[in-house]
Design a protein that fits this description.
The structure holds 2 protein chains of 2 kinds. Chain A is an all-beta fold. Chain A is built from no helices and 11 strands. In chain A, the strands form 2 sheets. In chain A, strands 2, 4, 5, 6, 9, 10 and 11 form a 7-stranded mixed beta sheet that branches. In chain A, strands 1-3-8-7 form a 4-stranded antiparallel beta sheet, with no helix packed on it. Chain A starts with a strand and ends with a strand. The relative contact order of chain A is 0.33. Chain B contains no helices and 12 strands. In chain B, the strands form 3 sheets. In chain B, strands 2, 5, 6, 10, 11 and 12 form a 6-stranded mixed beta sheet that branches. Chain B has a 4-stranded antiparallel beta sheet with strand order 3-9-8-7, with no helix packed on it. The chains are: A mainly beta, B mainly beta.
Chain lengths: 116, 113
């Protein structure tokens, strides 16, 4: 099992540029989550999907952020335009819910984004 | 609402010392409780979990008991190793037809030889 795959692992970009982060969840998982981690704010849930449908995007900080899940094996998080305060580690996680209870979330290795 | 409170770090210990990281929670409903660990440069990994009161989760020498009466889920290990140095997150989930976790802010553990 390959686990959750994220790309790129590191991204350095200049302010104003578009950034796209990618995630491949574990096969068979029906939930996908995007998190952001910073020293100041800790781990924040940005958005999550169930069966490719966005369920709650209330954590998305601004309209500059958007996320899509076109199919069960791929999701993107896009920032356009990027700003220095977007610098953080972005994690994707997936889980498989059974019996109506939350099950374990499996995290990817993260993408470290630096916006200059 | 749901919230998790962890003791602030860093927690600094010598190898073979006893570890306790405190975690308390508030939840609307009956939560499942989790401890996740994040090693430097990596994503979070599930360490252990408990789904009902008085359950004890255990893994890699770590233990935590679900205490409903004190709304706590403290993490313990009898003898820490340098390789246990990491950030530990307590988390909860509440069944409401969807699957989300509420995380604490994390506690950094530093173990010296």
């Amino acid at each position: 099992d390959a686990g959750v795959i994220q790309s790129p692992r590191h991204e350095v970009t200049e302010m104003g540029q578009e950034v796209t982060l990618r995630c491949k969840p574990i096969s068979g998982h029906d939930y996908l989550f995007w998190y952001r981690q910073t020293m100041m704010r800790g781990l924040e849930l940005l958005i999550y999907f169930n069966n490719n449908v966005p369920i709650d995007d209330s954590g998305m900080p601004e309209d500059r952020f958007s996320a899509k899940m076109p199919n069960a094996s791929f999701s993107t998080l896009k920032i356009q335009p990027s700003e220095p305060r977007d610098s953080a580690v972005y994690f994707c996680a997936s889980s498989q819910t059974g019996g109506g209870r939350t099950d374990t979330q499996y995290f990817g290795p993260g993408t470290r984004l630096t916006v200059l | 609402g749901n919230s998790v409170t962890q003791m602030e770090g860093p927690v600094t210990l010598s190898e073979e010392a006893f570890l306790t990281i405190n975690c308390t929670y508030t939840a609307t409903g009956y939560p499942s409780l989790f401890w996740y660990v994040q090693y430097p440069g990596e994503g979070l990994q599930l360490l252990l979990k408990a789904t009902k009161a008085d359950d004890k989760g255990s893994n890699k020498g770590f233990e935590a008991t679900y205490r409903k009466e004190t709304t706590s889920f403290h993490l313990e290990k009898g003898s820490v190793q340098v390789s246990d140095s990491a950030v530990y997150f307590c988390a909860l989930s509440v069944t409401r037809g969807y699957s989300t976790l509420t995380f604490g802010k994390g506690t950094m553990l530093l173990v010296s030889p």
